[in-house]
Write a structure and sequence with these properties.
419 residues; mainly alpha; Vanadium-containing Chloroperoxidase, domain 2; 14 helices
Length: 419
């Protein structure tokens, strides 16, 4: 996954992986409602007595072999080790068959979700004032990702947002834009004299560039760590990871759709076009341009609004807080240069603290405006709220009325036997 292009791609793949393991488990134990959405029906009960561990391992291996076939040998080795720890017999055989069925049904459903065509969707930058312009030789990233099918939310438009004003040109004249412009110009510059060393570390810590596990992977590392700290069972961990990843997947899809719909420019383009006096290109007298300004972190090759990393981080943090409480202390390491080793470690006292730091890293890195950051956070929080309230719920216990009726039936049966 380190070689994948962007965090939303990883979120989609991990959502398939985690929901397959969750469904493999819960269709055998019936503790939580199994996952289903749209044309994909939640699976019913699996074979009685089947090994839950064999089913989960097989579901995971089947998904990863399909999505990342280049690493198939490593997956096979891990899978063989996992199965080697399960006693041979009918339970193991049934679990393997059931896990493969669960995974293949999910993979079949997602094969038509639009992900394969997202990178080749035609797109040409508008190229006028206020609109995104390429800041590197890289092609626009995943212009069709906003069309990818969601996992939980039924309408992306209910979660997207827009900048104030009738047009981008109108928004450029506002005080809100001027404040955002001057803030990122000051704090996000490669040579900023006001950004603190801690803010610089935050920018690098969450940059999640090429060769790293990306933003989505970092939140999975958090989820894995806190699951262990909280002492969650394997099935409760599967539930948590499924919820976190479908929330990040849908938040990423919504935010990406937002970005290519609004097509707002990145700070480095905006600052180059700020101008002054007769050369005031953006038309806002409160924004003074700088042709030599550069961001601390290289800008990603897609439009700026709304901030995708804010949406993904907010979604993950909100799900984790809903399941474990927000005030949960944990540590996280970051691989800054993409060489596979940890370069920085940060300690957090809550999930919201980590999400805020991840969001603000875009400001300190010079790649995001503050309005984009806060609106991205709202997208993620709203998606997470829907996921938590509409998925992965406990299977309800029989109601009091049902229990009473059962008791009456048993009493009458006993009376008849005595007569």
């Amino acid at each position: 996954m380190r070689t994948s292009t962007e965090a939303p791609v990883i979120a989609r793949d991990l959502a398939i992986l985690q929901t397959s393991m969750f469904n493999a488990a819960e269709s055998l134990r019936s503790g939580y409602n199994t996952y289903g959405f749209g044309s994909y029906s939640a699976p019913g009960s699996g074979p009685l007595g089947a090994s839950l561990e064999a089913a989960m391992a097989t579901a995971a291996n089947t998904v990863m072999q399909s999505l990342y076939s280049g690493s198939g040998a490593a997956f096979t080795s891990l899978y063989d080790t996992q199965l080697g720890g399960i006693a041979d017999g009918q339970a193991k055989t049934d679990g393997i068959a059931w896990g493969a069925t669960i995974a293949n049904d999910l993979l079949s459903w997602r094969s038509a979700d639009g992900a394969a065509a997202a990178g080749s969707t035609p797109y040409s930058p508008v190229g006028t004032i206020g609109y995104w312009q390429q800041t590197s030789a890289a092609s626009p990233l995943l212009p069709g990702w906003g069309n990818v099918g969601t996992f939980t939310i039924t309408s992306k438009t209910a979660y997207t947002t827009t900048l104030p004003g009738a047009s981008l040109v109108d928004y450029l004249q506002t005080g809100q834009y001027a404040a955002d412009f001057n803030q990122v110009k000051d704090l996000g510059s490669a040579f900023s004299g006001t950004r603190t060393s801690d803010q610089t570390n935050q920018a690098y810590f969450w940059a999640a560039g090429d060769g790293t596990v990306k933003m989505t992977g970092m939140w999975n590392q958090i989820a894995q760590s806190v699951s262990a700290s909280a002492g969650l069972t394997v099935t409760d961990t599967a539930r948590l990871l499924a919820a976190v990843n479908v929330a990040m997947a849908d938040a990423g899809i919504a935010a990406w759709a937002n970005a290519y719909d609004v097509q707002f420019w990145r700070p480095e383009t905006a600052i180059a076009n700020g101008g002054v006096g007769f050369f005031d290109i953006d038309g806002n007298p409160s924004t003074v341009g700088d042709d030599f300004w550069l961001p601390l972190i290289n800008s990603p090759s897609y439009p700026e609004y709304a901030a995708v990393q804010s949406a993904i981080s907010s979604a993950a943090a909100a799900v984790l807080a809903a399941y474990l409480g927000d005030s949960f202390a944990f540590s996280l390491g970051s691989d800054i240069d993409g060489n596979g080793s940890t370069d920085l470690t940060h300690n957090f006292t809550s999930f919201s603290q980590a999400a805020d730091e991840a969001a603000l890293s875009g400001l300190y890195g010079g790649t995001q405006f503050m309005t984009s950051i806060t609106d991205g956070q709202a997208i993620g929080a709203n998606v997470a709220d829907y996921v938590v309230n509409n998925n992965f719920a406990l299977v309800p216990e029989p109601s009091g009325a049902v229990l009473l009726l059962l008791g009456v039936v048993m009493f009458l049966c006993g009376e008849r036997r005595r007569r």
